[in-house]
Design brief:
Strand order of the largest sheet: 3-2-1-4-5-6-9
Distance between the termini: 43 Å
Bound molecules: NADP nicotinamide-adenine-dinucleotide phosphate
Number of domains: 1
Strand content: 15-25%
Radius of gyration: 18 Å
Helix content: 40-55%
Number of helices: 10
Order of helices and strands: EHEHEHEHHEHEEHEHEHH
Shape: globular
Oligomer: single chain
CATH class: Alpha Beta
């Protein structure tokens, strides 16, 4: 049966080829079925195609895929132009693409990893949101929902050892998203920051140290969908990590240094894609 475009929820997700992005796409498809238009972005075309086929067949969700690198502003602008022309303004844009690399400043060979992490986790958000803001402003002025969602991390609350690039990038993401939220409020565009704790994905599968309150990606995605629908400004998932994050903020620098002395580091890897 043909769908009424007015009833279709349009959701764009970056980093949809894996982990949290794929789980979010599945959760939206499960929830909205044929009433959903998904735009799935990533670099791994085969993974995006497999996910798109699964969601179309299983849930009748409409899926379009775009192979783009969030570090490339021109690619993101071209993708957004095409989405706006063909599908219309998304109601929800989720900036989820991210990389985590173990880094140590003392090694010159880690500089490319610092760059990749900052460009993906910080500039990637800017490149994802910027091209949609003008049309989302118009949509919001016409009473349509318009929401930008950024996936940050509990790692951005305090500096973790061996994680200088990742922790700093996520701290920057949290603060950037807060600025964006207050900038967008007069335009009726809501901004939601989600800071996950430890979630089971390929990003965490390589960690050999204990990960407290580790949560499955599907469970995370259901909770994230509820937070997005409730238009939360900032949320930590799982809630137990929210308590840990509050404590982390309170600990004085000397006590933090002592507590971090024996904390295991994320492995340094040669992959700086
Ligand atoms: N898992 C956790 O415990 C956890 C905790 C806190 C925060 N997070 C955050 O959650 C987000 C998703 O992470 P994940 O755990 O799902 O990791 P993941 O399974 O490794 O997925 C990362 C996703 O980001 C995409 N991506 C990476 N670099 C990209 C680039 N330059 N351009 C376009 N897409 C890019 C990847 O797609 P392609 O390879 O196809 O490009 C992939 O889809 C990240 O921002 C991460 O920092 C995760």
């Amino acid at each position: 049966m043909p769908q009424n475009p007015a009833n279709i929820l349009r959701v764009l997700i970056t980093g949809a080829s894996s982990g949290l992005g794929a789980a979010l796409a599945k959760a939206y498809a499960e929830h909205y079925g044929a009433q959903l238009q998904l735009v799935l972005c990533g670099r791994n075309e085969a993974a995006l195609q497999t996910l798109s086929a699964e969601l179309s067949v299983r849930y009748q969700a409409a899926c379009d895929i775009y192979c783009v690198d969030v570090r490339a502003a021109t690619q993101m602008q071209a993708m957004a132009d095409d989405v706006l022309n063909r599908l219309g303004t998304p109601h929800i844009v989720i900036g989820n693409a991210g990389v985590s690399r173990g880094t140590l400043t003392e090694f010159a060979e880690d500089i490319p990893a610092f760059q990749a992490v900052f460009e993906t986790n910080v500039m990637g958000l800017v490149h994802t949101f910027q091209p949609f803001i003008p049309s989302m402003k118009t949509a919001a002025a016409n009473g349509q929902p318009a929401q930008l969602v950024g996936i940050a991390s509990v790692a951005g609350i305090r500096g973790l050892p061996g994680s200088g690039a990742y922790s700093a990038s996520k701290a920057a993401a949290i603060t950037y998203l807060e600025s964006l939220r207050v900038e967008m409020q007069s335009h009726g565009i809501r901004v939601t920051t989600i800071a996950p704790g430890y979630i089971r994905t390929p990003m965490t599968d390589i960690n050999t140290y204990p990960m407290p309150f580790l949560m499955d990606a599907d469970v995370f995605a259901q909770k994230a969908l509820r937070a997005i629908a409730a238009k939360k400004r900032f949320t930590i998932i799982p809630w137990q990590m929210g308590i840990v994050a509050r404590l982390m903020r309170l600990i004085p620098a000397g006590l933090w240094d002592w507590a971090m002395k024996k904390t295991p580091h994320k492995a340094r890897l040669p992959d700086h894609r």
